[in-house]
Amino acid sequence: MKNLVLAAMLVVFASSATLAADTVVLKAKNGDISFNHKAHSDNLKDCTICHGPGKPGKIELDKEKGHALCKDCHTKSAQGPTKCGDCHKKG
Question: What CATH fold (topology level) applies to the domain 36-91?
Fold first, then answer.
């Protein structure tokens, strides 16, 4: 019985680690921004929209680039947050 409980706990732990990896956190002066990477990639289906040409990698954003990329896309698509406090969470 202990082995069954241990196995179940390991499955839950491994699953939560996999799901957590879908969340990306970008550090910002006025509050961290977190978003679900898998949801964005599934919806957009084109990595170059956010990552640009070439092999996708970490995106380096400053305020202007972030707003141009994220906020403008959310506004144009009428999906996702566009207000400051909706993206920037102070913890």
Answer: Cytochrome C3 (3.90.10)
